[in-house]
Design a protein that fits this description.
single chain, 459 residues, alpha/beta, 7-stranded mixed beta sheet, 4-stranded antiparallel beta sheet, 13 helices, 11 strands, 13% strand, globular, binds pyridoxal-5'-phosphate
Length: 459
């Protein structure tokens, strides 16, 4: 049996379009631009061009943080495109602005916030930029600190904002080192600490409770980057340290969560939230063109971007309506399956003498290195196995990580360089749980091939 793309939502979309159309039935008839034969031909051409992608929607794509949106998100976004609302000002998107506010309230509730300021953004980078922009306004001249495993954009965004950035070392599990942070804090120059709850490369969760303790002593702003990991706070299967970090998320000053990562949304949907709504004063501005239709708040008044896609709010609202963001709910169970898949794959790899695993996954990312004589050889093998897997239809990722993450191994096989290219898999589709055996089997065959073609004396 071959793979079939989901199509049922097309029927549902057609029916929803009828409902949408009824709302505008009072308008006089006006011609609509038809797609036409040439348009149909172009559409088929586009479909051909899109073949040149990894199959992100399939369980054998187990590489980066990529997965298809939920069918309801995809259909709701398409439905919104017939209206094409702009959530900058209320006259550009009244209904979708209301849906954005409701959807963001539900995201804020994950941190236990009733009162907050927040809005959707184009993604995690823009959301973090806004959080650091506000942080910089509140502590001018002070530095931003984030771990060396924090997303690379924190350093870049800090530079854009004219804020100095300090990278803090991590421990051997990829979490911000509290000793290194405290050392830096003693200099008295840090205005903001970014705690990452779910690092991009390895899914490590920074020890937020301890960062909050240090905040009491040293006084700084805490921003949580939960762009990738945030939704895991809803799950019931986290290890105690990660659980404790997610439980304290509400004590941060701001946080970022990306619905377009684990929130089942099409790209173009991040979210920034502030605990203190009065930071809205920094956004205050007037628009001579757009804020005339209502005295109510226009979302453009509390966001840095002007035009923003109403479709993102519509899709997110629809998804959260179907799969509410509650602990123990269906959405939480889907995430628990992803984490279970990661733990299962990690256990398989740990039992395989040809690999060296890093720490057990805190969320749903697994990283491991091929056993080798040194870091250079392990790195070369990682790349070769990545390619051999791809030839067999299994798509993993390769990440550069500190060799120390793998250094628990008695053979010190990653010696010789501070960094090693290792294999990485984000098992972010719930279906991955049923595919772990197959993924491990393909990985085994690919590793056989690589070791057979390079029978290193050192193997
Ligand atoms: C922890 C974290 N922060 C920020 C980002 C950047 O988000 P975006 O790619 O949506 O701009 C990512 C992306 O993977 C991430 O994992």
């Amino acid at each position: 049996m071959t793979y079939a793309l989901e199509r049922h939502s097309l029927e549902a979309l057609r029916e929803a379009l009828d409902v949408l159309e009824r709302g505008f039935a009072h308008l006089p008839a006006a011609p609509t631009a038809p797609l036409g034969h040439e348009g149909e031909r172009v559409l088929r051409e586009v479909a051909e061009k899109l073949h040149d992608n990894y199959p992100y929607f399939h369980p054998l794509y187990a590489g980066q943080m990529l997965k298809p949106p939920h069918p309801v998100a995809r259909a709701a976004a398409a439905l919104a495109d017939w209206v094409n609302p702009n959530n900058h000002a209320l006259d550009g998107g009244r209904a979708s602005s209301a849906l954005e506010r409701e959807a963001v309230v539900q995201l804020a509730a994950m941190a236990g916030w009733n009162d907050h300021l927040g809005h959707l953004t184009s993604g995690g980078t823009m959301a973090n930029l806004e959080a650091l922009w506000v942080a910089g306004k509140l502590a001018p001249g002070k530095k931003v600190a984030a771990s060396r495993q924090a997303h690379y954009t924190h350093e870049r965004v800090s530079a854009v904002l004219g804020l100095e950035f300090v990278a803090i070392d991590t421990d051997r599990r990829g979490r911000m080192s509290m000793e290194a942070l405290e050392h830096e804090l003693r200099r008295g120059e840090i205005g903001t600490v970014v705690a990452t709850l779910g690092t991009t490369a390895a899914g490590s969760v920074d020890p937020l409770p301890r960062i909050l303790e240090l905040q009491q002593r040293h006084g700084f702003r805490v921003h949580v980057d939960a762009a990738y990991g945030g939704y895991f706070g809803l799950t019931g299967t986290l290890a105690p340290e990660a659980r404790a970090a997610f439980d304290r998320m509400g004590q941060a000053d701001s946080f970022v969560i990306d619905p377009h990562k684990h929130g089942l949304q099409p790209y173009g949907c991040g979210c920034v939230l502030f605990r203190d709504p009065s930071v809205g004063r920094f956004y205050k501005h007037d628009s001579p063109y757009t804020y005339f239709s209502s005295a109510e708040l226009h979302l453009g008044e509390i966001s840095l971007e002007c035009s923003r896609p109403g479709r993102a709010a519509v899709a997110l609202w629809a998804t959260q309506r179907l799969l509410p963001l509650v602990r123990g709910g269906e959405f939480a169970r889907l995430l628990e399956r992803s984490r279970a898949a990661a733990l299962a794959l990690h256990a398989r790899l740990a039992a395989n003498p040809r690999f060296v695993t890093a720490f057990a996954p805190e969320l749903d990312i697994v990283v491991w290195a091929p056993r080798a004589a040194n870091a250079a050889e392990a790195s070369a093998r990682s790349r070769a196995i990545f390619e051999a897997c791809a030839r067999r239809g299994l798509h993993l990722a390769v990440a550069q990580l500190p060799a120390a993450f793998f250094d628990h191994d008695e053979a010190h096989v990653t010696a010789g360089a501070p960094m090693v290219a290792c294999l990485r898999s984000v098992l972010m589709k719930p279906e991955h749980l049923e595919w772990v055996d197959r993924i491990a089997a393909i990985l085994d065959q690919a590793t056989d091939e690589v070791l057979a073609s390079a029978p290193a004396a050192t193997a």
